[in-house]
Design brief:
The chain is α+β, with helices and mostly antiparallel strands. The chain has one domain: Alpha-Beta Plaits (2-Layer Sandwich). About 30% of the residues lie in helices and about 20% in strands. It is built from four helices and four strands. A four-stranded antiparallel beta sheet has the order 2-3-1-4. Helix 2 packs antiparallel against helix 4.
Protein backbone atom coordinates (compact mmCIF):
# COMPACT_ATOMS: atom_id res chain seq x y z
CA UNK A 1 0.00 0.00 0.00
CA UNK A 2 1.27 3.48 -0.86
CA UNK A 3 1.98 5.81 2.05
CA UNK A 4 -0.23 8.92 2.12
CA UNK A 5 1.66 12.16 1.58
CA UNK A 6 1.59 14.97 4.11
CA UNK A 7 2.11 18.64 3.16
CA UNK A 8 5.56 18.55 4.77
CA UNK A 9 6.58 15.72 2.39
CA UNK A 10 6.11 18.06 -0.57
CA UNK A 11 7.99 21.12 0.65
CA UNK A 12 7.22 24.55 -0.79
CA UNK A 13 7.60 23.74 -4.49
CA UNK A 14 5.38 26.19 -6.45
CA UNK A 15 4.69 23.54 -9.12
CA UNK A 16 2.68 21.47 -6.67
CA UNK A 17 -1.03 22.22 -6.63
CA UNK A 18 -2.56 21.44 -3.30
CA UNK A 19 -6.18 21.07 -2.31
CA UNK A 20 -8.09 23.90 -0.65
CA UNK A 21 -7.37 22.54 2.82
CA UNK A 22 -3.71 23.40 2.31
CA UNK A 23 -2.07 26.83 2.23
CA UNK A 24 -3.81 28.86 -0.51
CA UNK A 25 -0.52 30.55 -1.39
CA UNK A 26 0.64 27.28 -2.92
CA UNK A 27 -2.35 26.75 -5.20
CA UNK A 28 -1.73 26.98 -8.91
CA UNK A 29 -4.95 27.74 -10.71
CA UNK A 30 -4.13 29.57 -13.91
CA UNK A 31 -6.58 32.32 -14.70
CA UNK A 32 -4.45 33.59 -17.56
CA UNK A 33 -4.03 32.59 -21.17
CA UNK A 34 -1.87 29.59 -20.31
CA UNK A 35 -2.54 26.35 -22.12
CA UNK A 36 -3.00 23.08 -20.28
CA UNK A 37 -2.38 19.56 -21.51
CA UNK A 38 -4.38 16.84 -19.80
CA UNK A 39 -3.38 13.20 -20.19
CA UNK A 40 -5.54 10.22 -19.30
CA UNK A 41 -3.19 7.48 -18.13
CA UNK A 42 -3.56 3.71 -17.95
CA UNK A 43 -0.81 1.62 -16.45
CA UNK A 44 1.08 -0.87 -18.57
CA UNK A 45 -0.02 -4.50 -18.48
CA UNK A 46 1.90 -6.28 -15.73
CA UNK A 47 2.33 -3.12 -13.62
CA UNK A 48 0.24 -3.29 -10.45
CA UNK A 49 -1.35 -0.24 -8.80
CA UNK A 50 1.36 0.09 -6.14
CA UNK A 51 4.16 0.02 -8.72
CA UNK A 52 2.28 2.52 -10.90
CA UNK A 53 1.90 4.94 -7.98
CA UNK A 54 5.51 4.49 -6.87
CA UNK A 55 6.84 5.27 -10.36
CA UNK A 56 4.38 8.05 -11.24
CA UNK A 57 4.45 9.91 -7.91
CA UNK A 58 8.19 9.36 -7.45
CA UNK A 59 10.77 9.37 -10.24
CA UNK A 60 8.39 10.50 -12.98
CA UNK A 61 7.12 13.52 -11.01
CA UNK A 62 10.69 14.48 -10.17
CA UNK A 63 11.61 14.39 -13.87
CA UNK A 64 8.66 16.60 -14.89
CA UNK A 65 9.53 19.11 -12.17
CA UNK A 66 12.94 19.60 -13.82
CA UNK A 67 11.61 20.36 -17.33
CA UNK A 68 12.19 23.97 -18.37
CA UNK A 69 8.98 25.64 -19.55
CA UNK A 70 6.56 23.62 -17.42
CA UNK A 71 4.49 26.21 -15.52
CA UNK A 72 2.47 23.76 -13.44
CA UNK A 73 2.03 20.01 -12.96
CA UNK A 74 -0.76 18.15 -11.17
CA UNK A 75 -1.17 14.40 -10.73
CA UNK A 76 -4.70 13.10 -10.12
CA UNK A 77 -5.01 9.48 -8.96
CA UNK A 78 -8.30 7.98 -10.13
CA UNK A 79 -10.10 6.46 -7.14
CA UNK A 80 -13.17 5.28 -9.07
CA UNK A 81 -14.62 5.64 -12.56
CA UNK A 82 -17.79 4.80 -14.43
CA UNK A 83 -18.64 4.38 -18.08
CA UNK A 84 -16.08 3.73 -20.78
CA UNK A 85 -13.04 5.10 -18.89
CA UNK A 86 -12.88 2.51 -16.13
CA UNK A 87 -9.33 1.56 -17.17
CA UNK A 88 -7.88 5.02 -16.40
CA UNK A 89 -5.46 5.02 -13.44
CA UNK A 90 -4.49 8.68 -13.42
CA UNK A 91 -4.93 12.07 -14.99
CA UNK A 92 -1.93 14.37 -15.44
CA UNK A 93 -2.27 18.13 -15.94
CA UNK A 94 0.65 20.15 -17.31
CA UNK A 95 0.54 23.93 -17.86
CA UNK A 96 2.56 25.88 -20.42
CA UNK A 97 2.80 29.64 -21.04
CA UNK A 98 1.20 29.31 -24.50
CA UNK A 99 0.83 26.92 -27.45
CA UNK A 100 4.26 27.78 -28.89
CA UNK A 101 5.90 27.10 -25.52
CA UNK A 102 4.05 23.78 -25.24
CA UNK A 103 5.27 22.73 -28.70
CA UNK A 104 8.83 23.69 -27.79
CA UNK A 105 8.76 21.89 -24.42
CA UNK A 106 7.24 18.70 -25.87
CA UNK A 107 10.03 18.59 -28.49
CA UNK A 108 12.81 19.16 -25.93
CA UNK A 109 15.32 16.48 -24.87
CA UNK A 110 14.11 16.93 -21.26
CA UNK A 111 10.52 16.09 -22.23
CA UNK A 112 11.65 13.18 -24.40
CA UNK A 113 13.34 11.73 -21.30
CA UNK A 114 10.01 12.11 -19.45
CA UNK A 115 8.25 10.25 -22.29
CA UNK A 116 10.86 7.46 -22.24
CA UNK A 117 10.36 7.07 -18.49
CA UNK A 118 6.56 6.98 -18.91
CA UNK A 119 6.82 4.19 -21.49
CA UNK A 120 8.30 1.95 -18.80
CA UNK A 121 5.15 1.98 -16.64
CA UNK A 122 2.33 3.46 -18.74
CA UNK A 123 0.30 1.65 -21.37
CA UNK A 124 -2.35 3.78 -23.02
CA UNK A 125 -2.06 7.59 -22.83
CA UNK A 126 -4.64 9.97 -24.29
CA UNK A 127 -3.45 13.59 -24.34
CA UNK A 128 -5.70 16.63 -24.77
CA UNK A 129 -4.67 20.28 -25.13
CA UNK A 130 -7.11 22.38 -23.11
CA UNK A 131 -8.17 26.03 -23.08
CA UNK A 132 -9.31 26.12 -19.45
CA UNK A 133 -12.20 28.38 -18.41
CA UNK A 134 -12.59 28.74 -14.65
CA UNK A 135 -16.27 28.85 -13.71
CA UNK A 136 -15.91 28.44 -9.94
CA UNK A 137 -12.36 29.11 -8.67
CA UNK A 138 -10.76 26.72 -6.18
CA UNK A 139 -11.25 28.10 -2.67
Amino acid sequence: MTKALKPSDLGDDPLIRRGPAWDAAHLIHPETSMIKRISLLARKSGIDADEFERRWFGQHAAMVRQVDGVKGYVQNKVESATGSIQSIDGIAEVWFADAASMTSVLASPQWQAVVADAREFLGDVTALSIDERTVVPVR
